[in-house]
Amino acid sequence: MKALLIKEFRENLKWLAVGLVVFSFVAYSWLPAVRFSSPYTFRSQIDNGLSAVVGLLGGLFAFAIGVLQSAFDLRPGPRAYLEHRGVKSSQIVIAKLITGFTVYSASIVIPLSFLAVYLARVGIQSIPVRPAQVFPSIVAAFFAFILHPIAIFCLARCASWWGTKTVPIISAIAIAGPSFGFFSLLVFSTNLWIWLLPAYVVLLAIVCWAAIDGWQKLSLNPPAGQASPNGWRVNGVLILGSLVCTLIAIQFLSPIASSFRVAERRDYDLKFDLLTGEPWAVSIRPEDLLKSNLTENKASIYGCKVEFGVEPKEYQLLPKKLPLQQMHGNMAEYVETGMFKSTRYDQVYHNMNPLWTSVIDARGYLLRYSVVDARHPILDAIIDRDGVHPPKSLPGKPFRNLREISGSLKSLRAFYDDNGVYVLRQHRSNASEMQLYTLVDGSVLGAYQSDIHHAEKNRIQRLIVVVDGEIREYRLLDKDNSEEWTHGIGKEGDDGEWIENRVGEFQEIRAELFKSIAIPKSIIRNDFYSLLRTQAGYVVQLSSFNRKHFLLGFDGTVTELPTPSNFMVTEGFGDPVSALVPPVVGVPALLSHYIYRAKRGESTELVQWILEKKSMFLTLAGISVIFVGLSMWVVNRMLRKRGISGKLRMAWLAACIAFGVATPLIVACIYAVRVREKCPACGKPRRIDLAACEACGESWPKNDLHGIEVYDHEKNPIPVGV
Amino acid sequence: MNPDNAIQTFGLTRYFSKRPVVQELDFAVPRGSIVGLLGLNGAGKSTAIKMMLGFLTPTRGSSQVLGCNSQALKPEDRVRIGYAVEGHFLYPWMRVQDCEAFGRDTFPRWNRENFYSIVDRFGIGTTQKVSWLSRGQRAGVSLASTISSDPELLVLDDPALGLDPVSRRALNETLLDFNDSGARTVLISSHMLDDIERICDRIAIMVAGQVLVDCKLDEFRSRIAAWSIESSTDPGLSGQIPGLIHSHRRTHSWLVTVANPNEATLSALDQLGAVSCESAEITFEEAVIAYLARSRRSDTFLTGARAAS
Amino acid sequence: MQIQIATHSATPIFRQIVDQIRRQVTSGQLTMGDSLPSVRQLAKDLVINPNTVAKAYAELQRDGLLESQQGRGIFVAKKRTIYTKAERTRRLDEAIDRFASEALVLDFSHEEILNRLSSKLEQLTHEPG
Questions:
Q1: Is A700–B24 a contact, with Cβ atoms under 8 angstroms apart?
Q2: At what angle do helices A647-659 and A614-641 cross, to 10 degrees?
Q3: pLDDT tens-place string over residues C33-60
Q4: What are A120-126's contacts with CB under 8 Å, separation 24+?
Q5: What is the ipTM of this complex?
Q6: Of B284, B288, B289, which to mutate for an interface test with C (greatest number of C Cβ within 10 Å)?
Q7: CB-based contacts of C19, cutoff 8 Å, min separation 6
Q8: The whole model's pTM is what?
């Protein structure tokens, strides 16, 4: 093993130089982006952008090393020289994997470490970057490393181009890419990533294991009659790969299939009646917008009331006086990078190029930058629970889970964390002067601002805070105990002049509990995706994934609001192409979908749920059966060409039920086509890899005798030595 | 499996796509012998050897090496077999002493002295880099690396290719040393007929994927005869001579090589009606070449010979 | 003892060894009791397969030219007749065939050939050894 490692390092250390050059260049090319990035664009710079580039180049690099390591040793001479020894092929591959991983990780981690050191030196003083932001890139590189064992796997022995090579490559890319995407989505927001990373490590281990096995066993012409000619590990990877490739193909088919749909789907917004809380589907046609000079107020608005069991077929022209209000999502407003969250303020005023901007640091600080020179922002203040601090060092009382309240409380910037709701108020004439007020003290799960329908042009804003098991509504009062200041930004006077609502400099604002209602146990959760106050109660959406809305009445009732069924979002299972999804994937997906729904309390019984969507399921089942039958027919033909018969053939035909349309691909990957030749005895085509003819049972004739054979053993054919 | 055989194949056959390269090979290497495997390039020698050592899967048939199935050789079986592949591959970045160290680490038994004595026989310094060595010297290091693991069986695929006379002599000496008067077995494929004549006690000739000759070298010589025939036409084309291997045109006559001559051969020669027909001396080389040249002839000739049999 | 092997020859290698040792025994270069190299030794010196040497030695032993003494090696044997009368005649005829055809080609008269032959025989039989 030592000798093998020395050999691999001696031969492949040179790729370290190549890797260092490539990834140093990548790291270096990011320096200007870091140096000149402004707080508006920071989020696309280090984390996402760099990790995408590193992931992509890393995958290519890992694949290249794998190919180079294998290809040289698979030429006939080197292969015999290396393998014809007292070493196991597993040791050879393990040495290759260790070497490959060392070279790979060194050539990525070293340049990125230098980048991290640079970021640490630059600090957050002038840009919101932290050295830890290179970490996602390293994780991306780790995910991309799976292409290294895949390369070894694909080159093993006589892997066939189209089957055993293409399928694993495509599936590895398909798995590594989205898993990293998913990983980066989850990495800092939930604890799920702790599970995802080990799952990925297991996947990597399986692929490495299969690569080890494949190096030894994968061959184009396996001996006849063997149930699993490649070994089950290799076959396992091939089956998995084929399934993934089939799913990708289905994914590609899906838009083509959906383009055949006849029904037109109108995009619309879901709005709620501020008096009753009833949902309305409201649509503004683009052509109407054009007609009315692109302002919503003057456009004709079409829509309809959403009711249970009624699919809106046609939209009616709505009267303009209908008090409809759209809900604002909460979390979706943020762009998170794991390290920093941009605040809503920056989003909204991005194009207005404000002189100050702020970001939420994942460690619990609000960083405020002065962007007088947009290319060189300067850290202006660090805000923690105690108030505003100069940008020297990080103060001691960070917020916990600081979030900004979506929608603005007039010109105030309101935030909340686990311990309260805060307002950041800056001096009207001197914006560098700031004060932090605590509006609500105590444990807070979520905070929302909501308009209260008052009169058509005067809406009062209230603060609605979700605490454990309760929704509390606060009135926001100024020192005159008046809510009036929260009327919209201003109003149009009688003479058409704009009258702005003013609020005094550093005016003290109080939050006074107005009312509170208990949240029913059935829909209790940490916080709601969005919340809207109506005269009838609070309309809440549970999460961004769950589109159901509930009305929590002030009288303590809970009403589920109808959801329009032909929402623009296409439901995965409704697509006819989804019938092609191999049942072994589709059925668990369906079940987990059901369990997910059941946990949300949305569906009581599986059978009932299926019956609800009877026509859809019947169509899907019908298409599925047709395609399983078709796959069986194809697989049967393929198996005959590959000389598989008897129980094994039956097993594969049965497997069509589980693997569906993926089965032909699996069979094509695992078994090679058998060449046939005319039987000298009976004239029918017979397999050249079998001793006996399938038709007449005759064995192959010994070679044509030319009358010139010279053997010193009595009996041709088998010599028995001297 | 006969325990007296170091290698034995049973109907070993390999197709490359639809083309048979080795057909129904029934061939044995008796323990203790030096067997020369002869044949033109592309006759299937290397393919057969690769299958025997489990580096290629046979399309059908099987083979055994030292009593083990060739397709399931474990490392502990492999170390009992020395195998030098065509072209004497070595890692170009190694020095000669590194090759020795690499062998020492990867073989359970290792004879260091033997390595250096063989390397010395080929006149190679131990600090020389492999990439600087001549072909003959590389053959020496390769041979030393193979033999020093103390195998029971040595399989060499065309080791003499491109070697100078001195290296060839060193190769022959090393092989005879290894064979140690019949203690260990050697299978060698080669185009160097005089080397084969010197060191082998058995030969096998492969023609177009089939073994046509497999016997002791002396027996081979005694069972091939030749006649010099003066005739205007090629006597081979008559299709009348049983056991005709090849007829070769000389200035005024045809040299006709025949296997297993007997009375029938003589009477067939008489009936040719040639101007003259006299028995000719034939060297080992000519006898082998007669077999090899045969595969280069057109089909009509072969059909003629087949009809005669 | 000097033996040369030619590979591109119509004569098999073992036959070349037999012939050369036989010639050396008849010409007196090797005399009774002279020891010969062992099979291994000779095979090594000539770089040929030891079985070939063994075969040659076996034939010479059968012909009575050599004898193997257990544990001591191979020696030139005391001359003795081991062939039948008929076999001896056949071998003599073979030798005469070769000799006569070559001699006649050289264009000598019968007397001249016979004279030279008898003087040669005289010389060989009367020399000591």
A1: yes
A2: 150
A3: 888 888 888 888 888 988 888 889 998 8
A4: A122/A34, A122/A35, A124/A361, A124/A367, A124/A379, A125/A378, A125/A379, A125/A391, A126/A376, A126/A377, A126/A378, A126/A379
A5: 0.89
A6: B284
A7: C11
A8: 0.75
